[in-house]
Automatic annotation (TrEMBL):
Lineage, opening ranks: Bacteria, Pseudomonadati, Pseudomonadota, Gammaproteobacteria, Cellvibrionales
Protein name as it appears in the record: Zinc/iron-chelating domain-containing protein
Pfam families according to UniProt: CxxCxxCC
InterPro entries named among the record's database cross-references: Puta_zinc/iron-chelating_dom, UPF0153_domain
Length: 85
């Protein structure tokens, strides 16, 4: 599956636990990354400062669904399920 241009759900729902350019404390779940552009594209997409976790993410229908709202809901659920007990 190709990433949907203008989605950006993966730039909001999950947390990023490591510091990265512009967000030295990482990114909490549910907080939109400061590098998400107004048209919901990654401002660091081709930049080596892009977090490794973001570069490794591969869009899949099971996660992203067919629209932004589904992707956001699925990614939020995965974030919750991945929390330590």
């Amino acid at each position: 599956m190709e990433c949907r241009a203008g989605c950006g759900a993966c730039c909001t729902a999950p947390s990023i636990s490591t510091p990265f350019y512009g967000m030295p404390g990482g990114k909490p779940a549910g907080v939109t990354c400061i590098h998400l552009t107004g048209d919901r594209l990654c401002g660091l997409f081709e930049d080596p400062r892009r977090p490794a976790v973001c570069a490794a993410f591969q869009a899949e229908y099971a996660v992203c669904g067919s629209d932004y709202d589904t992707a956001l809901a699925n990614l939020r659920e995965l974030e919750i399920l991945s929390l330590p007990d």
